[in-house]
Design goal:
This protein is α+β, with helices and mostly antiparallel strands and 161 residues long. It has 4 helices and 6 strands; from the N terminus they run αβββαβαββα. Helix content is 33%, strand content 28%. Helix 2 packs across helix 4.
C-alpha cells in the first residue's frame, strides 16, 4: 500500500539510520518517487520501497542492452530503496516487496514504454539479493543493477502458467 501522510513509521528500523531517516524524509516531503509499504495487522511498517521514473542516457546504458536502444535516453523505473525492518529479516518480506515493485513496474511499462528496472544496492547483502533475482550489474557502477522489462514480463508470464 502507498505510504499515507501521517502513517506511523516510528517503529521501523532496518538497521541503517540513513535509510530509516530516508523513509521519514519521504513521508514529510513531496518527492518524485512513490513509497510503497508492507504493514502487519497492527499497521506497523515491516518494509518499504521507493520507485520513480528515470531516463538513462546512452553513455550510461548497460552494455547488454540491444543497440537499438542506443540513440535516445532509455525510459526506466528506479527502485531507489528497498528496506525491511530488522524483525522481518529473512522472512520473505523483501522478496514480496520486490515482486510487488516489479509487478507495478511491469504493469506501467505497457502504458509508458519503460524498458528497464534499475536498482541501487547500498550494501553487499543488497547486491546479493538483487543478483539472486536475476538483476545484472552495470559495469563501472558496483551498486547499480538492472533488469530488462522483457525479463520481468517473462517472469510474470511463467508464474501464470
Amino acid at each position: 500500500m502507498p505510504l499515507a501522510p501521517g502513517q506511523s513509521i516510528s517503529g521501523f528500523d532496518c538497521g541503517d539510520p540513513q535509510i530509516n531517516g530516508g523513509l521519514q524524509q519521504h513521508q514529510e516531503s513531496d518527492y518524485s518517487s512513490r513509497i510503497i509499504v508492507a504493514v502487519d495487522a497492527g499497521e506497523k511498517v515491516l518494509g518499504y520501497y521507493a520507485v520513480s521514473a528515470i531516463n538513462i542516457e546512452f553513455s550510461n546504458r548497460p552494455k547488454a542492452l540491444p543497440h537499438s536502444l542506443s540513440e535516445y535516453p532509455i525510459p526506466a523505473a528506479l527502485i531507489s530503496h528497498l528496506a525491511v525492518d530488522k524483525s522481518c529479516f529473512r522472512k520473505g518480506v523483501g522478496a514480496n516487496l520486490l515482486i510487488d515493485a516489479l509487478q507495478r513496474i511491469e504493469d506501467a511499462s505497457t502504458q509508458t514504454g519503460i524498458r528497464l528496472v534499475m536498482v541501487q544496492a547500498a550494501t553487499t547483502g543488497a547486491r546479493t539479493f538483487y543478483l539472486h533475482y536475476g538483476f545484472i550489474p552495470v559495469a563501472g557502477q558496483p551498486g547499480r543493477l538492472y533488469l530488462p522489462i522483457e525479463q520481468v514480463s517473462k517472469l510474470f508470464r511463467d508464474l501464470d502458467r
